[in-house]
Amino acid sequence: MKAIIIGAGIGGMSAAAALRKNGITCEIYEAVKDIKPVGAAISVWSNGVKCMNHLGMGSIMDELGGPMHYMSYQDGFSGATMTRFSLMPLVESVGERPCPVSRADLQGKMLDWWGREEIHFGKRVERVEQNGEEVIAWFTDGTVASADFMIAADGTHSVIRPLVLGHTVERRYAGYVNWNGLVEIDTSIAPADQWTTFVAEGKRVSVMPIAGNRFYFFFDVPLPKGLPEDRSTLTMDLRRYFQDWSPAVQKLIDQIDPETTNRIEIHDIEPFETLVKGRIALLGDAGHSTTPDIGQGGCAAMEDAVVLGQSFAQYDNIETALLDYQNKRKDRVKSLVLKARKRCDVTHGKQMEQTLAWYKSLKAETGEHIIDGLRETIIGGPLG
C-alpha cells in the first residue's frame, strides 16, 4: 500500500511517520525547494509531545524543548505580576511536559529524521484526480505521481481542500496582527524558565524559553487588516503600539531584529465537517486552520497523524480507515478552532468589558483555573 503526502511541514511529516508505522509506503511532495516556516516558534503542549513520542520522534522534543516550568501574567504598563504559578501540577496530571520549540529547528529535525533525500521538493500540485482505486497528482513542473491514497497536508491555503469539500472556503481575519521572532534570553525581561505574558488594552507581549538560550517572543495588536507596514517600520510601529508599556517590554523591542521578525495577520477558517473524500484526506491546517491563541495548531496536526495511524491499524480497507479518521477527528478539531477563537476574542478586546473582566480575574488566579483549562484541552487528545 502506498500513500502520497502533499506537504512536508509538521503535519505531513507526522502523517508519514504514522503511516510508516503501519507498513505503508509514503512518498512526500513539498511545493517549495527550501522550507521557510511561517512563525519563529511553536508551542507544543503535552498532547503534542505525547504524539511525537508515539510517532518515534520524542528525542526531537527532548533536544529542542525549552525549560518552561512556570507561567506568569504581568500588567502591561506597570509590569506588576498579576499571577504566577508552576506548571508542574499540569505535567504531573497529564504525564508530559509542554515543549516550546523553534519552528524551523523542529521542521528541520523532522525532515532529517525521515531523510531529506527521500522527500520530493519543488513539487507544487496543479491538479488531483481519483480514478477507481488510484489517486493521481499532477505537478506544475510536468511530473505526475500516483498512489493508493493521498494525505493533503498542504496548509491553510490548501489547493486540494476544494476538491475534498466541493467548494472553496474563505479565511476569516481574526482581528489582530502578530509579530514574532527569537532573541537571546535576557532575565531582566523575564525569567529564563517561565512563559511570561504582559497584557493591557487588548494587546499582548509574550516571551517563552526555547532551547539554545533563546526566548520566543510575540506581540499581538488588534488592527485593521491590510495596513501598509513592513520591516522598515517594524521597530517604530511596535514602539508606537506599546508606548508607555513597562521597561521590560521596551527592552524587548530594543533587542529584536526587524530582519528576522515575522509580521502576520492572524486568520482562521470556519470549521467544516468533511475531512475526507474517497481516498483523499485533509490533515493539519488544510483541515482545520486555527488562530494560535491556545497553542494547538501544530498539536492538532500531530493528533491527526496519530489517529490516522490508529485508523489504518484497525482497518485494512482504505476508504473505511479514512472515514474512521474523519469521524474521530472532526468534532475534536472543530472544538479546538472554536475554543481558540473564543480565547482570541477575550484576549484581544473584541468586547473590552470581557477583556477587562479577564484582567481582573488574573489578579485572583492561583493557577488552578488556567491549569484546569489546559488539562481539559490536553486530555481530549487521542493519547489522553
UniProtKB/TrEMBL annotation:
Reactions catalysed: urate + NADH + O2 + H(+) = 5-hydroxyisourate + NAD(+) + H2O
EC identifiers of the protein: 1.14.13.113
Top EC group: oxidoreductase
This protein's pathway: Purine metabolism; urate degradation
Cofactors: FAD
Gene3D superfamilies: FAD/NAD(P)-binding domain
Pfam families: FAD_binding_3
KW Oxidoreductase (keyword) present: yes
GO molecular function: FAD binding; FAD-dependent urate hydroxylase activity; urate oxidase activity
Alphabetic keyword roster: FAD, Flavoprotein, Monooxygenase, NAD, Oxidoreductase, Purine metabolism
Keyword DNA damage annotated: no
GO biological process, one term: purine nucleobase metabolic process
FAD-binding domain segment(s): 2-337
Family: Belongs to the FAD-dependent urate hydroxylase family.
Protein name as annotated: FAD-dependent urate hydroxylase
Originating species: Vibrio mangrovi
Lineage, highest ranks first: Bacteria, Pseudomonadati, Pseudomonadota, Gammaproteobacteria, Vibrionales
